[in-house]
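Design request, tokens follow.
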């Protein structure tokens, strides 16, 4: 996977936030807040240095000054944390290498990296090609993009929580896929939830989530018939899973489908 660009983007975001926080800190009230309960009664003081002399004023009932000093300390603490993280992230980026197949091969000794791919261990070469397929541009469905309100850990927008679970299980198993890639059968266009590339060819995954909706189920059945016309069958290259009538999903079913058909 390629993550270095994301780390660099995060570093840029943190540096911008540090700059803004620094600008805010410059406008803060001078001095600091001190709490004292030595007399048996808690009091708050504003500690400030004026003309080289340290002074303290009681501000226990002054919400404005207390609030300003709290804001100052908050920004000061934010700056310290950002500074620490920026330094750590810069060191990390300097030594980090992405671990996608291209970079792994590029880091191999010349006597290996120059060898034609046909001589590379078949499972590595295959995984390399499959990942390249998954990351390549493709024609994705443009139907109701506003419905894609859920995000997977990879940042892929999907329509339902159940689809998030399917995507996460596929990712965890290292299985490359495309979400809602367009598929054309006869004069109709489809967007299977997941188009999956395996060593043995393409698989399609449909997850039906509205089993209590008659029109949705009618459309689903018609879609299954169209798949069969194109030679796409549940026992051959199609996985079909369902939410129950309460909208719940058993993730063990998803795991079993992956283990039994895709791995």
């Amino acid at each position: 996977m390629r993550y270095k660009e994301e780390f660099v983007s995060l570093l840029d975001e943190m540096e911008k936030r540090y700059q803004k926080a620094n600008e805010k800190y410059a406008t803060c009230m001078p001095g600091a807040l001190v709490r004292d309960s030595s007399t048996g009664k808690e009091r708050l003081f504003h500690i400030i240095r004026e003309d080289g002399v340290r002074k303290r004023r009681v501000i226990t009932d002054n919400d404005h000054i207390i609030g300003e000093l709290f804001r100052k300390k908050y920004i000061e603490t934010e700056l310290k944390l950002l500074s620490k993280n920026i330094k750590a992230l810069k060191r990390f980026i300097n030594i980090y290498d992405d671990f996608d197949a291209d970079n792994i091969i590029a880091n191999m000794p010349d006597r290996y990296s120059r060898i034609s791919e046909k001589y590379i261990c078949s499972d590595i070469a295959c995984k390399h090609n499959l990942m390249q397929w998954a990351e390549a541009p493709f024609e994705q469905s443009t139907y109701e993009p506003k419905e894609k309100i859920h995000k997977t850990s990879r940042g892929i927008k999907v329509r339902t929580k159940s689809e998030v679970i399917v995507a996460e299980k596929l990712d965890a198993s290292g299985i490359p896929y495309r979400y809602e890639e367009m598929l054309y059968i006869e004069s109709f266009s489809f967007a299977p939830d997941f188009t999956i590339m395996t060593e043995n060819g393409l698989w399609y995954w449909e997850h039906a989530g509205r089993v209590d909706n008659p029109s949705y189920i009618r459309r689903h059945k018609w879609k299954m018939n169209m798949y069969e016309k194109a030679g796409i069958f549940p026992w051959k290259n199609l996985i079909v899973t369902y939410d129950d009538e309460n909208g719940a999903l058993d993730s063990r079913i998803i795991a079993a489908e992956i283990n039994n058909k895709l791995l």
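Comment from the thread starter after seeing the answer: thanks! The chain has eight helices and eleven strands.
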